[in-house]
Amino acid sequence: MPDKSRDYTAQVVWGSLLALAAATVISTTAQAAPPGFCHKYAKAAVHQNHRNIIKGCGYSGWRWHAWYQGHYKWCRSTSKGFARSERVNRFILLKQCW
Asked: Taking 60 as the threshold, does the pLDDT of residue 73 lie above it?
């Protein structure tokens, strides 16, 4: 005779894991910055890096490069608010250099 309580427990555990996985996917997608915003973000980041070079500011690192796809992919992996703050941070650093 099968153990019904054990089958029920397995169903509850698997159901909970599936619900958690679905919630994770939904929350990650909901927080990701939208493609149109990220296109503008990446264009601005590349332009800001160009200004960095032209003005001789000397900034470098992950924030300062001319790889559009890199900026775009990063933007799509984070929230719109965080991406916006990165753009503002670069702007502030450039203003300090000028």
From this structure: yes
